Amino acid sequence: MSSGNNIESEFLKLNSKNEWSAIFQKIRSESAKNSSPCTEALKPQNKNLNRYRDVSPYDHSRIVLGRGTTDYINANLIKIDKANRQYILTQGPLVNTVSHFWLMVWEQQSKAVLMLNKLVEKKQEKCYQYWPSKVGTEYVMMMEDVGLTLQYIEHQDHSYYLQRVLRLTDIKTKNSREILQFHYTTWPDFGVPSSPTAFLEFLRKVRDAGVLEPTVGPAVVHCSAGIGRSGTFCLVDSCLVLIEKFGLNSVDVKEILYEMRSYRMGLIQTPEQLRFSYQAIIEGAKQLLDPNSSPQENHISPVENEAGDAVASDSDDDGPPPPPPPRMDSLKKQNGTPIDRPLPNIPKSVSLNEFTYEGDSDEYIPSGPLPVVPADEEEEDEDRTSDDDLDELLSPYSETSNVSESISSAELRHRKRMEQREKLEAQVRDMKRRQQANEQWTQLKRSLYKPLFIAGTLVLGGGLVAYLYFKD
Fold first, then answer.
1. Which one from 127, 223, 234, 239 is the annotated catalytic residue?
2. 335 assigned to some structural domain
3. Which of 275, 353, 360 shows the shortest CA–CA distance to 16?
4. Local confidence band at 131 (pLDDT 50, 70, 90 cut-offs)
5. Within 183-228, where are the H helices?
6. Distance in angstroms (rounded) separating the CA atoms of residues 467 and 469
7. Does 223 qualify as catalytic in the annotation?
8. SS3 164
């Protein structure tokens, strides 16, 4: 293990130079030079037990089954001795390997299964459903070829992952063992989770269940091929264990990945998964160094993917929503003093021009709220009484010396509004009357047209019968 290696500095350097593809290709090339034989996977009787032709288990680390019709399963035991961690990485079970899968769980004394994929992705089956469809004793799965039964006990929904409890029983000895299944449902194939925070919360739940401890059998980790998403999970977990034991600057992520790839081929499938692993390790390390801080506070800066698009940080997906912006159009100032501003104009959409009826056509008059003139508010702009109108109304009193006592300007404005209101109401009544007349006329035309149509049909029909009669 190299010393003086700062993971965050390495991440920033790789990201600034956009070298993720280059470093990923280098890891693939170096791993290919040190690959191991896969003779068992290539045997004719085992070929139909592999989900993908190019993903095979190394002979030296493959899981060997102890009973049943075959000892072969596409699975490898991964050991990270410095972290005191062991994982079984395997493919998503096929319909003909479900019993082999559960036999492996039973014989390896695994306490948990970590499922990182959905059953169907992009309209393709990525994994056969290897547990009963429903909870209850009437849905027990029988696997007589390996002498096991499986019962679905309960499940919990945690939004982006599910936790199931399954009971595995040996038919011969009647011994039973409860198996926890953690099913991550939002991790896309060949992709990464939406945020490091959600992924780290999932990892924390798995750790808290005690299923990764050396005191129990190795957890079974699978996706579809058992190399991409599965490799990402194990790399992040192992590196965080090492950081907790030896410090942040003592862990070389690439070195750990090389070590893992010596047990199973192809772990970490894309440059994006490699970059996400760095992100999750850095974020998880910050949480380890400051356990009292919330995950949303310890997030790294957003990075860009290979297309130049920004990849949202964890705070974008899991943090609380931002506070609303300050109200710029509030009716009160900050000190509580009302703001003196005029009321808005009446919208044009409710003006009389929209409801004008012209001619005797059958054009439909639009429905909707009728215009209403406020009774207690002054109208704006063109509806407000102008100074010229006011002078005209005051002209009869211009020769008297006490105009203010005879009539006030407020009364004149009120009289003007009442006249406008009466005029508007009269126009609305006239509009309703004409609309009603149109509807009655339309109904009358339809009632007159229908008998004519029926009579015409009868005449045409009679003519056709007569024509056919004489034609024969």
1. 223
2. no
3. 275
4. very high
5. 196-208
6. 5
7. yes
8. strand
End-to-end CA distance of the chain: 105
Give SS3 for 29.
Answer: helix
Give the sign of the dihedral formed by CA 196, CA 197, CA 198, CA 204: positive
Q: Are residues 44 and 173 in the same domain?
A: yes
- pLDDT value at position 454? 52
Residues 262-295: tens digit of each pLDDT:
999 999 999 999 999 999 999 999 988 776 655 4
Number of domains in the chain: 2
Phi-psi region at 351: left, alpha or beta (left = phi > 0; alpha = psi -120 to 50)? beta
pLDDT in tens, 65-109: 999 999 999 999 999 999 999 999 999 999 999 999 999 999 999
The DSSP H or E segment spanning 154 is strand 148-157
User: What is the CATH number for 192?
Assistant: 3.90.190.10
> How many CA atoms does the CB half-sphere of 49 hold within 13 Å?
22
Query: Can you tell me the distance from the alpha carbon of 88 to that of 218, in angstroms, rounded to the nearest whole number?
Result: 6
DSSP code for 92: P
Determine the Cα–Cα distance for residues 438 and 206; give it in Å rounded to an integer.
73
Q: Nearest CA to 77 among 67, 65, 69, 68?
A: 65
Nearby residues of 329 by Cβ (< 8 Å), 6 or more positions away? none
Q: In the chain, pLDDT over 90 holds for what percent of residues?
A: 55
Structural domain span for residue 415: 349-398+405-442
Closest to 165 (Cα-Cα) out of 188, 183, 143, 146: 183
